[in-house]
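Take a sample.
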Amino acid sequence: MKTEQRKWTAALGWVPAAPGSSAKSAQLVLVFGATSVLQKNNLAATIRKDYPAAHIFGCSTAGEICGTQVSDDTLVVTAVQFEHTQFRSIQVSLSQTPDSFSAGEAIAQKLPHSICDAATGAEEKLAHVLVLCDGLKVNGSAFVSGVMKHLPEGVTLTGGLAGDGTRMSETLVFRDNLPETNIIAALGLYGRRLKVGFGSLGGWDSFGPERLVTKSKGNVLYELDGQPALDLYKKYLGEEAKGLPATGLLFPLSVRARPGETPVVRSFLSIDEAAQSLAFAGDVPEGAYARLMKANFDRLIDGATGAAQTTHQAIGSATPDLAILISCVGRKLVLKQRIEEEVEAVRDVLGASAVLAGFYSYGEISPFTPGARCELHNQTMTITTLSEE
């Protein structure tokens, strides 16, 4: 596997100025950038011109990761040339599906479960699926359930929800053509020589009493302990409530559906003053128990380290060729000028030769560890590594 990276900024343009020697042979280009930057059609046209044979796969972000640098209002391009891996890319429009669960089903059903390698004639089975979703229109947990219902046993799923900084106005997904809203795109990876690692970990601390979810519908929370959810949230946030919904990213919910279950973290993306409700990136089921969470700086960095260690162990601690990092915008808001520390922590574990690319998201999709159930997460660092034997 060969990779090259380029970055566009308004101040400097493209760095490096020209694509590398593998530009014409690259099969896949990962593109992560700010919404306003992705909407510049000339940049999309440049990517297509520079990598004429490649499939383009990417999304808008709440921050871009290139190596150990984290930036805003930029465009990061990572071109990949596989040696032994095949892939297929598909997309589903949310305007043509009734709900997020159905969209997930459509992705899993449209993606071939095996393909024929044109070079060898051998049948190659689906090994892993990477997904990118509209970050404001998708119920992530319902989507994941829909996908996993139809994927073959042993096939793993990772990815994330596109971002739009703290504006939460419009998110885009980019697959081959121009970036669009209301889109879910999936990349199916095939090949017995492909090694995939993944891990996801948070680092937030719970506080306050655990409360019962007494009224909710899907990803919309109406009541906790019989009290209006938004009103209760505002009481906890105090002065921070003036900045809702963006400041809500600093105080997610820890949700567990059953006793003894590992809690998942949920961040809300919008509020409804009239209904006194909160809309989250994934389900908050009635009968579940929820607690507010707050940041712990050191534990957030430890969480990134732990996710990298889990990922590394999954591939036998070999150095991966490419690591795709999807971290939550809430972590970025908390860590501020320390944000690059979590990416540097990943680098320390994975090694200097691994190419790091990724983005800050509105939700992360991954099992916590290999063998665990795939979930929609918030406030985690989620890592997917790829290498070829």
Q: What stands out?
A: The chain has a mean pLDDT of 93. The first helix runs from residue 35 to 38.
